[in-house]
Amino acid sequence: MDGVVRPLRVFVFYPSMNLRTWTVLLPGATKHVFQTEGTAIEFALTRASAMKGKGRAVEVLRERVSGGWVLVPF
């Protein structure tokens, strides 16, 4: 595994059953909460673009209602 650099990941969590807020988890365990999916995705993509601009590979993953993950292209 020498020389292999894993991408940074930004996670967008689907609201839990009792909550109606979307959570974005950035590298370093920084958590942000949003009222709408669109706002959460927009924030995640903006932050991912900024990290990518610094030369790191970045992935944005959004949780589905089923609990699976989907890669968000940007």
From TrEMBL:
It comes from Luteibacter rhizovicinus DSM 16549. This is Uncharacterized protein. It comes from the Bacteria.
